[in-house]
Design brief:
mainly alpha
Length: 124
């Protein structure tokens, strides 16, 4: 019975972290859209900012997961970054109706999300 409660609380924590991560991502992307509208940023700068948002958010999610768990922090950070990536890909597939828009940078984004989540977990 104790393991079920522990598993349930871990699952709840992971879902809360992912929800907070996506809310922060939404807020930062809206801020980036405002800056794009206001200042007419180039496509290269917008792409760099989007990548930076992915890195910062998954780092924070990994940091929070590592801080809470206490042991094997890097694995919890990697898991948070990987789950963030999976949800990101699923949402992209739903919106784009296929892999045509996301297939070019798929491996790069996976490495960035997983790596920054793992780094956040290790630092916590």
């Amino acid at each position: 019975m104790l393991k079920k409660i522990n598993l349930s609380s871990r699952l709840t924590f992971i879902l809360k972290c992912l929800l907070i991560s996506y809310l922060l991502t939404t807020g930062l992307l809206l801020l980036l859209a405002l800056m794009l509208y206001r200042f007419g940023l180039s496509e290269k700068i917008v792409s760099i900012c989007i990548i930076a948002i992915y890195i910062i958010i998954t780092f924070l999610a990994g940091f929070l997961a590592g801080k809470r768990e206490g042991n094997r922090k890097f694995l919890w950070g990697l898991m948070m970054g990987s789950l963030y990536f999976v949800i990101l890909i699923v949402l992209s597939l739903i919106v784009n109706h296929g892999l045509s828009g996301v297939s070019g940078n798929l491996l790069t984004v996976l490495m960035l999300c997983g790596g920054s989540g793992m780094l956040g977990g290790m630092i916590s």
